[in-house]
User: Fold Beta-xylanase from Steccherinum ochraceum.
Amino acid sequence: MFKLSASFVALVALIPFAAGQAQEWGQCGGIGWTGPTTCVAGTSCQVLNSYYSQCLPGAASTPPTSTPPVSTPPTSTPPGGAPPSSATGLNAIAKSKGKLYFGSATDNPELTDTAYVKILSDNTMFGQITPGNSMKWDATEPARGQFSWTGADQIANLAKGNGQLLRGHNCVWYSQLPSWVSSGNFDSATLTSIIQTHCSTLVGRYKGEVYSWDVVNEPFNDDGTWRTDVFYNTLGTNYVNIALQAARTADPAAKLYINDYNIEGPSAKTTSMMNLVKSLKAANVPLDGIGLQGHFIVGELPQGIEDNLRAFTALGVEVAITELDIRMTLPSTAALLAQQSKDYQTVISACQAVEGCVGVTIWDYTDKYSWVPQTFSGQGAACPWDQNLVEKPAFQGIVNGFNS
Ligand code: 9MR
Assistant:
C-alpha cells in the first residue's frame, strides 16, 4: 500500500505558530515550519513553494502570507493531468508539473565565473542548489571544535539571494573526513559526542535555511554490506541514529535524508537501504527522505527506476534524485549525445511519475565544472550544458521528462 499520503497528512496537520519576526532572507512559512511567520521591516514573506516561504527585500507583490497553502503538498501530475509546460526554465517546468524544484550542485571556485553564475542564479532554471564540497566535514570542522564557514556561507547566501532552496551536503561521510576523526582512535562515547557536535553545529548554523540535509552519505558498500568506516567500526549502525537525532534537534524543519549511489534500481545495496529505512522508521528515528544520487553512464541506466522510487516512498519517506549526471567515454558524438538525452529523459520522467519524488538535482550543470573527468579517466560530458555553457540535447531530454 502507498503510505506517503499518510505522512503528508501528518505534515500538513502541523500548525505553524508565530515566534517573533524572521530576518531578511529567513524562512517565514512552509509545510512543517514552526518558526516566525512575519518578516522584519523592509521585507515581506513570499511563498517560494509549499515547503518554503522566505523574507525577501521589498514589499509583497502579493499580500504577505504567513504560511503557504498547506492543503496541496507537491504531487506528481495525475494521469492525464497538466498539459506540457510552456515555461522554458527547468525549475519553472518542474514546478509547473508539481515538483518542488529542479536544482544543481555548485562549488566555490566556480563562483568567480560570472557567465556560469548568471545561469546558476536564474531561479526559473534552478530552484535549488547543493554545495558540492564546502559543507563537508573537512571544510567545516578541519580541527576538532574549530569550525570554518567561509565556503558554506558563500553558497548558503547565494541560494538565499537567488530565492533558491538549499540542500545541505553532508554531516557524516567516510570521505573528505579529516584524519583527526578517522584516525583519532576515539571510544564510542567520545565519537558519539564528536558526531553530535559536528552535526548539530553544522545543521544549526543553517537552521531555517536548508530544505533538506544529507545527514548520512553513502553508508553501504555496493554488495549491500555496511561500509566499514570509523563511524561503523566504532559505533555500529547506531551512528546513523545519532547523526539523525542531532540533526533533527538542530533544525526541526529540515528534511533529513540518507543519500547513496547505486540504489536507483534493484540491487543488494538498494535492499539494504530499504531495510535501513524500515528499521529506522520502526524505531521512530527521524528520517524524512532518501537521496538517490544518480551518477550514471550513457546507455547503462538501471532498469526500473520509477518502480524503485515508488518502493522507497511506500516506506514512508520522500525521495529525490540528488546528484544526477550521465557520463560517456570521450569524445562525445551525436549518437552518444542523443542517447544521453534519452537517458536524462528516462530519469526525470521516473521522478515525475512518482508522488513523493520531490525534485532532481544535477551534479553541476556544465561539463566545465563536472567532477567526472578527474575521477574517470577518458570519460566526461556528463552534464546537460557543455564546456561553453551551451545547452546540449540532454536539456531537451529533461524538458521531455517533466512533460511525460
Ligand atoms: O563533486 C565533488 C568533487 O568536487 C569532489 O572532488 C569529490 C570528492 O569526494 O566529491 C564530489 O562529490 C561527491 C558527493 O559529495 C557524494 N557523491 C559522489 C560525488 C561525486 O564524487
User: Anything to note?
Assistant: Residues 132-133, 175-176, 217, 293, 323, 371 surround 9MR (CB under 6 Å). The chain has a mean pLDDT of 88.
